[in-house]
Specification:
121 residues; mainly alpha; globular
């Protein structure tokens, strides 16, 4: 993504917290309805899908397009934002999440796994 929008910059500016799904670049009202129908309401849940798909661009973009009949541009925007977010806040590079004795980042994985239990790919 060559031109970074204000939405993209805001998305990367702060840790995930309780960002809603429409805070993710590429998610407009139609994609929001579709993702909500899949049980995805928060940006962290979409980030979890991205991670479960092993950050694979083809898988993620195809899944978004299949589920939402969306535009590839929107799906790519979502992918690019999630990839940049993960790179910036990846817990192997910094210590944003508590260490529960299994290595840094394991708490984040636990939280995302809890969110994804009822969401199908």
């Amino acid at each position: 993504m060559s031109r970074k929008t204000k939405k993209y910059q805001r998305f990367l500016a702060v840790p995930m917290g309780e960002k809603l799904i429409d805070d993710v670049p590429g998610v407009g009202s139609a994609n929001k309805r579709t993702l909500n129908g899949e049980g995805i309401y928060e940006a962290s849940e979409l980030l979890g899908k991205f991670l479960v798909m092993k950050q694979n661009q083809d898988k993620f973009v195809s899944w978004i397009m299949r589920k939402s009949d969306g535009r590839k541009k929107d799906a790519m925007e979502m992918f690019d934002a999630l990839k940049a977010y993960h790179k910036k806040y990846n817990t192997t590079d910094n210590n944003n999440f508590e260490d529960r004795g299994r290595g840094r980042g394991s708490h984040a994985v636990d939280v995302l796994t809890d969110h994804l239990q009822n969401v199908t790919i």
